[in-house]
Design a protein that fits this description.
alpha+beta
Length: 217
């Protein structure tokens, strides 16, 4: 069975281009994003790693660490980073896990238990390793997305989802479709009108079960 929302992620010890560590220790008290790739030196993935590198200041502003995963080794990762940085025009300061043995890919249910990496493997052998996992400071999975090999991930959406998760956790609210920071939020059903008005100043009742409000500045 794969990881589900609010499951605690496995505390694997991983080897990366920046050394070995246990995932829980690396996360510490931060939020974290683990984004995975089927192989180094592949075109779509290179643009995605570049996009992550370009957003370094945004991750830091949100107290969030990022870490990549690929089924190649540490030396390949170090060489690949040169290409990533050339494409991105930004340093790729985040670690990349060397998952040649598929331990991480299988533990996060990106590959079936019986999967293996044959000699001369191609990205197709690990095509499902195309996922994003957002993890909270409690080490629990908060959100996951999986993409096919031929569609690049939208890291602006990953950033938006992270904002939504952090806002929901901090303010005890929910966020509606297409929400962005500064937009109205959904008042939890368990909160009375009186308490909601006391907290937010006013509420906009769309339906008996759908009430919107602006967060206090």
């Amino acid at each position: 069975m794969g990881l589900r929302i609010n499951d605690t992620i496995p505390n694997l010890t991983v080897e990366t281009d920046q050394g070995a560590f246990a995932l829980h220790d690396w996360i510490g008290d931060s939020w974290a994003i683990l984004f995975s790739h089927p192989k180094d030196f592949t075109p779509v993935c290179t643009t995605e790693f570049g996009a992550v590198a370009q957003l370094a200041d945004e991750w830091a502003a949100r107290g969030t660490k990022v870490i990549g995963v690929s089924v190649d080794g540490v030396e390949e990762h170090k060489k690949w980073k040169g290409d990533i940085e050339a494409v991105a025009g930004a340093p790729a300061g985040f670690p990349i896990i060397a998952d040649a043995g598929l331990e991480v890919s299988k533990a996060f249910d990106m590959l079936p238990a019986e999967a293996y990496m044959p000699d001369g493997r191609t990205p197709a052998h690990s095509a499902t390793v195309r996922s994003v996992f957002i993890i909270g400071p409690d080490k629990q999975l908060k959100l996951s997305m999986t993409y096919p090999m031929n569609v690049g991930r939208n890291f602006a959406e990953v950033l938006r989802a992270l904002d939504g998760l952090q806002t929901a956790a901090r303010e005890n609210v929910a966020t509606p479709a297409n929400w962005t920071p500064g937009g109205d939020v959904v008042v939890p059903v368990a909160v009375s009108d009186e308490d909601a008005i006391a907290k937010y100043g006013s509420i906009d009742t769309k339906l008996p079960y759908l009430r919107m409000a602006k967060l206090p500045e």
